[in-house]
Each structure stands twice: as C-alpha cells, then as structure tokens.
UniProtKB/TrEMBL annotation:
<feature type="region of interest" description="Disordered">
    <location>
        <begin position="235"/>
        <end position="260"/>
    </location>
</feature>
<dbReference type="InterPro" id="IPR038721">
    <property type="entry name" value="IS701-like_DDE_dom"/>
</dbReference>
<protein>
    <submittedName>
        <fullName>SRSO17 transposase</fullName>
    </submittedName>
</protein>
<feature type="compositionally biased region" description="Low complexity">
    <location>
        <begin position="235"/>
        <end position="245"/>
    </location>
</feature>
<dbReference type="Pfam" id="PF13546">
    <property type="entry name" value="DDE_5"/>
</dbReference>
<dbReference type="InterPro" id="IPR039365">
    <property type="entry name" value="IS701-like"/>
</dbReference>
<feature type="domain" description="Transposase IS701-like DDE">
    <location>
        <begin position="15"/>
        <end position="287"/>
    </location>
</feature>
<dbReference type="InterPro" id="IPR012337">
    <property type="entry name" value="RNaseH-like_sf"/>
</dbReference>
C-alpha cells in the first residue's frame, strides 16, 4: 500500500476533485484504500480497523455526506474512454445475497452468486470493455415489483411497501423498471450525457431476448451483439413478403411473408455444420498439455436473417429488417450451443462477430475482482444512496487496479 498510495491519491484527486470540501476528498481516498487493503471483509468496521480510524468516518461519508456519486461515475467514464478506449459496452447484472428483508430492493430472486433463487439484491451494470481491460462505469439497483407500492393491489401491502421505501430513503420517482429498461437508461447517461463514444452493445440472453431492448438500441443508433434463445424466430434473409391479390372489396391486403418464421435452431441446423468455420477468438490463461497456448477456439456459422416479431417495425414493402445470426457449433456437438443476433454491418468478418459476441468474458473478471478483492457485495447499510455510493467507490478501486496492472512502473515514477 505504501508503494501504490501515490497512485491512489492521484486517481482519487481526479475522481473526487469536484467535491466541495477537502475532508470529503480525503474520506473518499481513505475509503478506496480500505477497499484495496488485504482482508476478507470490506464492510465498514473491518476496513476501519485495518485503516486504524473510527468506522463512523466511513459510514458518514457513504450514507450522509453531501457528495454526488453520479459525478464520480461521470469522471470514471471519462477515464475509461481515454485509458481503456472501449471496443464495446457490455450490459450485465449480478446478485448480492442478503439475510434480512430491509436492504433496498431485496427480494427472493434468482441470484447468480448463489446459483439458485434466494434472498438478494440485484445490481445492473454497464462496463466499458476491450480484450485487455474493462471498467464498471455505471450502476442501477433493480427494484422488484414488491418494492413499488404503485404496483400493489392491496392497501395494507402498499402501506408496508411505502414504509420500507421510506426506511431505505428510496426517491419517490424511482419505481420498478425492467432490467433492460435500466440498461437503456444507463446507456443514455454514459453516451448521451457523459459523452462516451458510441460502441456496440453486448449482453446475455436476459437482455437479448427482449425485443424492446433490441429496438431501443437501434432507435439510439447503437449496434449490438446480443445472446438470444434458440427458440426466437426469424425468416431467412432472402425471404420476401408477398401482397395477396385484392378483389376490390374490403380493406386492401397487406404484404406478408408466405411462409411462417422458423426458430433460430432450425435455421442453423438447415445451414448445416459445414457452413461453419473455426475461429480463435482469444488466448486464455489456463494452459494444459493438450492446449499449451490456452487458445479459445470453436466452430461458428453466421447467417443473414430477419427476426420475426409483431413488435418489430416493417418497411413500407412489409419486409423485416435484416441482421446477423451467429451460432456456435462446437466440434463433436450434435447442434449449436449458443446463439447471438447482431446488427453489425453485413460485410463484418466472422472473426470480428465472434470476438465481439465473446467479449462478455471480461465481465466475469470484473465481478470476480469487484466481489472477491474489492468488497463490492460487502455493503451492510440499508440505504438506497449508500448502496449506489459503495458500488461506485468499488468500481473506482477496480479502475485503480486496472491502471496499476497496465502501467506497472507507475508507483516508482510517482
């Protein structure tokens, strides 16, 4: 810590330079050091013991002090745009297991950290990503319907929800919104308000299966490579709508596709294994005797298709928009195992499609580092504001680690 502390102080000055008071800037730097110090637990009391300070200093800074975590995220986004120069913006969410029911947004939901449904909070995040680095630049705490009194049909239940919201100091205007809507809100923030350059958006099927999310990205002029379920339906790209003959009575018929859409699995199977090509998208870190270079390699096929959904706007001739279907068909597998839809240009090379679709691996690294090393899920407070401040500070701490890894001589130069 003595060696890297000058770098932490310099980074903290950039992130917290907008704070009105010097003591707030000092407490912010202190909190970052607490997150980065050795120690399994990164809640306030254990951190304060390691820092040899009163834990109330940390608690007051996170829960009641007057500073804007949104401004810190804006500065972090500016750093990520310069230092990481992201190739993609990746959307994901992660669970925060909880024992009680008073933490904001806590409910029985599927929790990846538990591998099952359990009592947890869920945070949705946006990450600026390249193959070599990534940063969690924005966050939203997901509010289930059980935390929205406007969704309650029973007066007593609504009153209890309101009491819980007041205890957690949840702003009244914040209501239940689907995770994909939270993701769009954050993209509007980081690109539209904070000036991060537009980049392709990548996410798992929890987002890719939401037609509204895909349309929302297109409306914003953002391309994407989104995982989807094989049961999604589409027409082949060469399919064309046909207008039935009009008999002169009634409403004129609209153009429509003569054949029903097929699911993505059927389209891939019809193309056949031979339509695929082997692609190496990166080298991993786990070398084995059978794979000394730790190469990540598999067979992929890419088809031009037209996703079919009644919510998708059609052109004047009735045709649906065209995009890529990417499917991974590993050697020895009887059928493809993973599917993506992508609106990257039609002349995009297969290896570029695969690299973008697979870049989500960086998020697994982010969550692992944030949770195992930097205490992302160790916050024990029960306030909405405290949660958002804590995850913001954990993200700043991770950004410092990223900068130190990329510039190993920085501590000595400082």
């Amino acid at each position: 810590m003595d060696e890297v502390r000058p770098v932490i102080e310099q980074f903290a000055e950039r992130m917290f330079g907008g704070f009105a008071r010097r003591d707030q800037r000092g407490k912010g730097e202190l909190y970052l050091r607490g997150l980065m110090l050795d120690g399994k637990r990164k809640s306030m009391q254990p951190m304060a013991q390691r820092l040899e300070v009163d834990h109330q200093q940390l608690q007051q800074f996170v829960t009641t002090s007057t500073w804007e975590h949104v401004e810190v995220r804006r500065r972090l986004t500016g750093w990520a745009g310069e230092f990481i120069a992201p190739d993609a913006l990746v959307i994901d969410d992660t669970g925060f297991p909880k024992d009680g029911k008073d933490s904001p947004g806590v409910a029985r939901m599927y929790c990846g950290a538990l591998g099952k449904t359990g009592n947890c909070q869920v945070g949705v995040s946006v990450h600026a990503v390249t193959d070599w680095a990534s940063a969690a630049i924005d966050w939203r705490l997901f509010l289930p319907e059980s935390w929205d009194d406007e969704k309650a049909t029973d007066g007593g239940a609504a009153a209890e929800i309101r009491r819980r919201r007041v205890r957690s100091a949840i702003p009244d205007e914040l209501r239940h919104r689907e995770k994909w809507r939270l993701a769009l809100d954050m993209l509007d923030e980081v690109i539209g308000e904070w000036g991060l350059p537009s980049r392709p958006v990548v996410a798992d099927a929890g987002y890719g299966d939401a037609t509204e999310f895909r349309l929302g990205l297109t409306e914003r002029g953002l391309t994407y490579a989104l995982a989807v379920s094989p049961t999604a339906t589409a027409h082949p790209a060469e399919a064309a709508p046909v207008t039935p003959a009009w008999k002169g009575t009634g409403r004129p018929p609209q153009p429509r596709y003569p054949d029903p859409p097929q699911d993505l699995k059927s389209l891939a199977m019809a193309a056949g294994r031979s339509a695929g090509r082997y692609v190496l998208w990166r080298h991993g870190s786990r070398k084995t005797p059978g794979n000394p270079t730790a190469s990540m390699r598999s067979r992929f096929l890419a088809l031009r298709i037209r996703p079919a959904n009644r919510n998708i706007p059609r052109d004047s001739d009735g045709s649906l928009p065209e995009c890529w279907l990417l499917a991974e068909w590993p050697p020895g597998a009887p059928e493809p195992t993973d599917y993506w839809l992508s609106t990257l240009p039609a002349d995009t090379k297969l290896r570029d499609l695969v690299r973008l679709a697979k870049i989500r691996w960086r998020i697994e690294h982010d969550y692992r580092e944030l949770k195992d090393g930097l205490g992302l899920d160790h916050f024990e407070g029960r306030s909405w504001l405290g949660w958002h401040r804590h995850v913001t500070l954990a993200a700043v701490a991770q950004a410092i680690c990223t900068q130190l890894r990329r510039t190993p001589k920085a501590p000595a130069q400082a």
